[in-house]
Structure formats: C-alpha cells, structure tokens
Amino acid sequence: MTELLGLVFSPWTEKARWALDVRGVPYTFRHYQPLLGEPALRVKLRRLTGRVSVPVLTADDGRVLADSADIARWADGRGAGPTLFPAEHEAEIARLLDLSERALAAGRARALSRMLADDEALAEMAPPPIRRAYAPLAARLGGLGVRRTLRKYGGHEDGAEAHLRTMVAALDELRATLARSAPSGDGPRTLLGRFTFADIAMSQVLVNVAPPAALKLGAASRRSFSDPELRDRYADLVAWRDELYGAFRTT
User: What is the end-to-end Cα distance of the chain in Å, rounded?
Assistant: First the structure.
C-alpha cells in the first residue's frame, strides 16, 4: 500500500493529501514526528546530511517522492477525478505554485513567530505523551521545536514586515486571478476555469490567515495560525477557500 508520511497541520502535507484524495488514489497516512522521526526519514530519502522534510510518499512500486507537487503529479497519473495538471495550463500552474511556495514560507515564519509568544500554543506542539507526562516542560520543548523549524527553513531574519508584504502580494494576486477566471458552472470559481492543483496550492496560503475548520489544530495553535488583520481584509478569499473545500475536499 502507498504510504504518505506527513504532518496533519502542515499545508504542504495537505496539498499532497488533497491531490491523492481528489484523484481517488488509495494510501495510508502516517504522522511524522519531528526530531524523533528524522533518522528514519533520512534513511528513507537516502540523505544523511542537509535538510529533510515531509510530506514524503512511498509508492507501492517503491518510488519515494519528497515534494507535494511531485506527489500530486504522481497522483494525477493514477485514479480518476479532476486532472490536476492539464497540459494547456502548465505555465500558469507553475507560476501559481511558485507564488504559493513563497507565500507559505512567509506565512509559516509569521505564524511561528506568533507562537513563540504563546506558551499554550507551544505546549500543543509537544508530542501528546510528553504533554501528559511532563506538562511543565511542554512549552519549553515546543519552543525548542519551533525555533529549530525557523532556523531550518530560514527567512525569519527578513522580518515581519517583509513577510507581510509577501503575503499581501500573493493574496492580492490570488484575488486578481480569480476575478479574471471564467465561472466554472454552479460550483466555486476556480483559478483556471476548472479545478487544478493551482487551486489546491493557492488555497493553502490562507491557512496562515484563517485555518480551515477541517484542519486539526488545538485552540491555542489555531490562534497562532490566524491573522485577524489579513482575515478581515481577505474575507472574500477565505470564503472562496471554504467553498472550494466544500466542493472538492470531501474525503
């Protein structure tokens, strides 16, 4: 059976899961435990040095894919359902994927910086057994993990204002692209006039504005991933994301 290793609260993992689900590709999901699971992940990826991250898909034919877009392309060649990478839209999908990646990195830096000021949210980042057995240390351990993540991916040194500008530029472009797109029947408007991986990728930018109700987050973590200023400014895009989930994220 195909296995997907990921983090339930990660938008990169969600991009991969959504692609697999909408194409109807069967797989088993396994939660990745940062730090503790890293040695096994390095062995799986045959990468003993450098940065490793999830999602990682181990296909039933033995292939190992370590990028959400690569996983989505793999899924697009299997199962059934909407074609995620139609040939006529390849260039525009690539442009929107790049925009999504830059905005997600900025959003992650902003969310994790907010989390560092919230001990309750930091405690939620610690593994449940540690929270239960060592409750007073949970926030400290969570803080270590959050700071490690910020160092791992970099960019946090650019500053909050730079990250905000990146987010605003991406959200403005998302709004403009939706306005240019042709209506797609009775369902929600899509970026390219039909549902593609571009919709999945760009919808995830809004995780760091207003996490979807379906996302499994503790109440304190949800506070950290929420940005009230951007949520109100881009309420139309949050509503679009929610409609997209209702129409295409049924699994």
Answer: 18
CB–CB of 31/216 below 8 Å?
A: no
* Token pair belonging to 105: 């990195």
Pairing assessment for the beta strands 3-6 and 28-31 based on DSSP bridges: parallel
Find the largest Cα–Cα distance for the chain.
55
* Triad 234, 97, 250: Cα angle to 5°: 70
Task: Name the nearest CA neighbour of 110 among 165, 66, 44.
Answer: 165
Residue 11 has pLDDT above 80, yes or no: yes
Interatomic CA distance for residues 111 and 230, integer angstroms: 12
The strand pairing partners of 4, in sequence order, are: 29, 57
pLDDT in tens, 164-207: 999 999 999 999 999 999 876 778 999 999 999 999 999 999 99
3-state secondary structure of 37: coil
**Total residues belonging to the chain:** 251
**Residue 183, preceding bond cis, omega within 30 degrees?**
no
Give backbone dihedrals phi and psi of 6, rounded to 5 degrees, phi first.
Answer: -165, -175
Tokens 């990921």: give the residue: 6
Please check whether residue 3 is in contact with residue 64, taking contact to mean a CB–CB distance below 8 angstroms: no
> Rounded distance, CA 124 to CA 111, Å?
14
Q: Alpha-carbon distance 31 to 5, whole Å?
A: 6
Q: 32-67 in b/e burial notation, b at 16+ Cβ within 10 A?
A: bebeebeeebeebeeeeeeebbbbbbbbeeeeebbe
On whether the pTM is more than 0.85, the answer is yes
Per-residue pLDDT tens over the stretch 92-131: 999 999 999 999 999 999 999 999 999 999 998 887 777 7
